[in-house]
Structures are given as C-alpha cells and as structure tokens.
Amino acid sequence: MTITTEQMRFWSPAVRELEPYVPGEQPKIQNLLKLNTNENPYPPSEKVVAAVQAVLANSADALRLYPDPDATALKHAIAKQQGVGVSQVFVGNGSDEVLAHIFKAFFVQNEPVLYPDITYSFYPVYSQFFNVQTKEIPLNENFEIVIEDYKQVNGGIIIANPNAPTSIALSLAQIEEILKANPDRVVVIDEAYVDFGAESAVSLVSKYENLVVCQTTSKSRSLAGLRVGFAIAQDHLIAALEAVKNSFNSYPIDRFAIAAAVASFEDQVYFVEQCNKVIASRDKLIVELEQIGFDVLPSKANFIFASLPTKDAGELAKELRERGIIVRYFNKPRINRFLRITIGTDEQNQRFVDALKNEILV
Amino acid sequence: MTITTEQMRFWSPAVRELEPYVPGEQPKIQNLLKLNTNENPYPPSEKVVAAVQAVLANSADALRLYPDPDATALKHAIAKQQGVGVSQVFVGNGSDEVLAHIFKAFFVQNEPVLYPDITYSFYPVYSQFFNVQTKEIPLNENFEIVIEDYKQVNGGIIIANPNAPTSIALSLAQIEEILKANPDRVVVIDEAYVDFGAESAVSLVSKYENLVVCQTTSKSRSLAGLRVGFAIAQDHLIAALEAVKNSFNSYPIDRFAIAAAVASFEDQVYFVEQCNKVIASRDKLIVELEQIGFDVLPSKANFIFASLPTKDAGELAKELRERGIIVRYFNKPRINRFLRITIGTDEQNQRFVDALKNEILV
C-alpha cells in the first residue's frame, strides 16, 4: 500500500525512516521442499506433546491465568541443561526478541557497535530501531572474521558463531581474544546454530564479566514454531536485560511455550541424537555438492553456503523454485554468487541434489 | 541483587535509569482466591482445546517450522469478529507488546503524549523506554476523564476505556470529541476491558484516520496465558505498527497462540455468554459491598475500584491476604484508599464478601 505524505504526519519521525527486517518466506505450496529458513527437518522431542497436553487439562483452564512473568521453570530447565546458575539465564520470545533487548540494554553508547559486514541482517535493523551507532567490519576474502579488527574503540561487539549466512565458526580461543581485548564493553556471541558442531562460549561465562551468549530453541530443538530464545551471562548483565524486558512486556512467553520448551530441555538424549543426524546429513550433502562442482564454505551450522562457478546463483534459485525447492538467495554485494541451503533429511537433500544433477545442470 | 558501579559501565546509560513495570503478583499458594490481576474466572472456549490439539498432530511436527510472521489467519478471524478489513488489524504478543509498538510508532514526537494521572501504569514505563515526552492530565475529583483537558497541544493521546484501575468508561460521543479536537495526532483507545459493558470505538475506525483501538484476549476471552493482543485502525496507521514490529521481532506470535486465538474469535456465542456472566456477577457484588459500606466507582470492567471509609485499604488488603484472598492495592497518591478487586464467579465473590462480613469487619 502507499502511504501519503499527509498520512505520514501521524508516524513518529524516526519510524518513517525504518528499514525493517525481511524474514525468509513461508510459502503455502504443495509438496514444497523448504530449505530456506534453517528449520530442523525432524519433529521436536515427543515429551513436548505431553507437556502441552498438560496445559490443556481441565478444559484448558490454565489459560485464563497469566503465565509466570519470569518463566522460572524454563530458566531452571535451561540452567540445568547448560550447567549455569538460574540467575545467569534470560529468556525471551524467540532469540530475535532477546537480541533486540540486548541492543537496547548494552549497545546504546557513544561509540559504534561492531559486527561483520556479512552476518545476520537483523543487526543493522535493531541498531536503527534503537538508534545504535554501528561499524561494519569486513570479513576477509575467505569470509572469515579477522580477530584483530575487533580490537578498536567500540560501544559493544556482536558476532554470530557460527556466522550466518557463511556457516563458518570461530574457535573458543578466538572468542577469548576478543573478550580480553574489550574488558569494558559487552561482547555478544549469537549462537543460533552452535549445536551443529561449533564450540559454545557458555563455558566462558563464569570467567568473563563482559560476555553474553545468546541461543535459540528454533533450530537445534525443532521449536521454531514456539518462539523461545535465551541469553546466558553473569548476573549483572542479566539484570540489565530484565530491566529492559520489564519496561517492554511483562509476560513475553506464553504457557504453551514455557511448558514445551521445558520438556525439550529435559530430553537431552533426543536433542543430541537429532543434532548428530543433521550434522551427518550435512557432511554427506557437502560431498555430493562438491562432486557436482560447488564451492562450499566449511560449515558448523545446519545450513551450507555454496556457490557454483559456472552458474548465476539467482538463476539457480529460480530454477530450483520452479521445481518446488526453496533455498535462500541474498542479492547483496560479495555474497550474490552463493545460495544458503538448509540441511534437510537425507531424502530431502537427495531430492535437492537430484534436481540439480538430473534437471537443472544437465 | 546489587549491581556495582563498575558493573554498571556495561549498561546503556539510559537503561541505568529505567523504572520497569511491576505486574500483579502470581503467588503459588494453595486454595488461593486470586482477585488481583483481572483474569477471567471461566475457562476459554472449548474450541481452543481442539485447535491446539491440531497443532500437536503428527508428533507436533508443525512446531519445527516458523509460524506465519504476519499471523494472517488470526488477522482474518479478528477482522471477521470485529467487522473490519484484514488490513485494519495488527496483532502482537499480548496487548502490552502492541502498546509498546504504539508508543514507538506514533508518540516519539516533539510534544508530550497525554494520558490521565491515574491509569495503566505501563504508559509511563513505555514512555521512558522510548524517550517519549509525557504530560499527565489529572482525573477530576470523581475520578473521571475531563474531555476539555485533551484539547491542548500534544504528541498523541492514550486513554484506557474503561480506565484502569478506576473502571469508569467514557461514551463514544466523548471519544469522538477528543478525536475531532486532535486531527493531526494519533488518539489511542486502550480497550482491555471494553467487553464488560463499555462501548467500543472500533465502530469509529472507518470515520477517523487518527484513531487506534487496542484490545486483548487476556480478559474477556480467558486467554491471559496465551499472550495475544491486537490493534484496529486505518491501513496507514497499521503500516506504521508493522514497520515497528518488523524492526523488532518478525515472528512474535507462536503457532499455539495463533491457533488458540483463532478458535476463540470463532466462538462468538461462548464469548458473549461468558462476558454476560461476569457482568451479572459484578453488579451483584457491587450491591453486596455497598451494603457493607463500601464506596464503589461505577464499573464497566471485570473489576471494581472500591474503598471503605472506615478502614485503611492497605490494612484491608493485608487481612484479606491472610485469608488467602489477594486483591490489588496501589500505595499511590489519590488512590491509596481504594482496592482493585477482580470479578470472580459468584461463589468466589461470596467467599470474598463472607471474609469481609464474618471475619475482617466484625
């Protein structure tokens, strides 16, 4: 729709300039193979179903009552699974909300927040929303983060690890180097994809008072439909996030989401098993794609970032789409020759490879 | 916990000054009569249970996928029930989130937003959070909103109707007078309690390009545990809210909440029946309390605001609490002689009255 200049007078001036985030599409197509939003191909733990059934007991009478505004049961389950204290856990309505609160809590400073030029595209959006100054730090030619670049004056640092959409991970030693170089600023490690093979920085939380680790249940726990994310940090940083959260929305997580997420965190066996399946499928898919001629960046995520030297990536995405296979293509400088492909089941990955081998690249 | 000055260096300066909202407590006490947070005493529509069961089908496989970021099915259900167009509906994670987005979208102006001195205590919190200037307009001695006071220079107006915690409602004619007097500013009518006897301003949306009506499923639909709120306005104002929402969190409403809320909006018969029961119980309770000597403000909400000239309200709240009955007491100027009492079932209200008559006031 078109908004007239006259109608625009009602908007807050800063809101007229916003450039919102654009999520991967959620098309409603039959027999669609959806490899575009890094969802998990497996269902969540079966304990999730029982937990939600319990909320429905007695004609869903529990729904008439507000949820626990602190989601204490969920914080306990996360703390136990992560091996940290309950007061070191913050929870939110998806890690997107947790990240928004992080930008408000720590990054509204006189110096710019640093993040890579190629990374989660919501970071510049949060920055604009909360009037945070930013400085984008270019990845090197291999799409790697250069640690030395994060040793300059800043108002905070946020790094996705593994990075998205590149899929490349930093080591814990590299993260520690950044933490040590910035003792007066918060360093956020956004670990949305960490469970698929990277090292989590949660083990560093007790040692570094400036570290915030952010994770989500959307990918490795198959709960994208639920909207539960969390941050782990020392108490004094969690307190800032709670102050922000309680100035925005007292009850961000509903009764179903709390119950279902608790059940997921309590089923560690299923969690590990399912992550390992995705990792195995990824490594198999990479071999297959390399055989066809793709260059694939080294992935520690549940997606890969791949390019085919002989074919335009946008065209390739279009031809896949015509066959009901959706991958993510970013028409942006430096990465417009790549496709970001979510890891499916072995059968789904095979359908993708077959479409390339037998139809598109013949 | 205590945060040291040294630890505070990590916080954004403005966040160090925040004074967050404090929600009504959610105590875990046996046989508690909870009349403190304006929840509905009846369960939600039974159609809600079936809708959530459907999400759980096939081992809850649907949960691995992100929800529709636009919650289109929910917007359709609300539009149908409210008699407006789908593009006139905005949805959020509880009306608290919708209100937060409203403050950001419309009220960050050079002039102050106007609201009553006695009203929902989250308004000043949002204002501080988004750096919105404010001007509190005193209610008159009968705790009524004075329409003339809202005809002055402002950056927007927000009025809870019925107002909380007073329970007193404006007429549509009064609201129209405010809308006409402020053709260049957004006027928000926060109708959290409207379904218990007040007139909704939704019928005015097509006529006034500056009107935003905000409602919630938490009270009249018994879905406080679900976190679904919505706003209704002309398309050009909804577009501002969408720009703000998509700069903060793409997927604020989870799959359970979407399904359950849709089912609730589709069961209009149960909705009307249940609201009428609460209204009847309220009117009965007011008569009983007046007989004991209470002054009760004229309520169009699912709560009443009542004072007893012969007894300190804080003391009364304490004695009720000792008997497992919790009501809300605000230790604030002008209203510290009142209790805000949520309407329960007739049996619950009787327990409350009996405790007063037979134990506390003997």
TrEMBL record, chains A, B:
Q: What's the EC number here?
A: 2.6.1.9
UniProt-listed CDD domains: AAT_like (cd00609)
Please state the pathway this protein functions in, per its UniProt record: Amino-acid biosynthesis; L-histidine biosynthesis; L-histidine from 5-phospho-alpha-D-ribose 1-diphosphate: step 7/9
Gene Ontology BP annotations: L-histidine biosynthetic process
Record keywords, A-Z: Amino-acid biosynthesis, Aminotransferase, Histidine biosynthesis, Pyridoxal phosphate, Transferase
Task: Enumerate the cofactors the protein uses.
Answer: pyridoxal 5'-phosphate
Q: What are the Aminotransferase class I/classII large domain coordinates in residue numbering?
A: 31-356
Pfam families, sorted: Aminotran_1_2
GO molecular function terms attached to this record: histidinol-phosphate transaminase activity; pyridoxal phosphate binding
Q: Which residues carry this modification: N6-(pyridoxal phosphate)lysine?
A: 219
Catalyzed reactions per annotation: L-histidinol phosphate + 2-oxoglutarate = 3-(imidazol-4-yl)-2-oxopropyl phosphate + L-glutamate
Q: Which InterPro entries match?
A: Aminotransferase_I/II_large, HisP_aminotrans, HistidinolP_aminotransfase, PyrdxlP-dep_Trfase, PyrdxlP-dep_Trfase_major, PyrdxlP-dep_Trfase_small
| Top EC group | transferase
Listed under subunit, the entry gives: Homodimer.
Question: What does the sequence similarity comment in the record state about its family?
Answer: Belongs to the class-II pyridoxal-phosphate-dependent aminotransferase family. Histidinol-phosphate aminotransferase subfamily.
In Swiss-Prot or TrEMBL terms, this protein is called Histidinol-phosphate aminotransferase
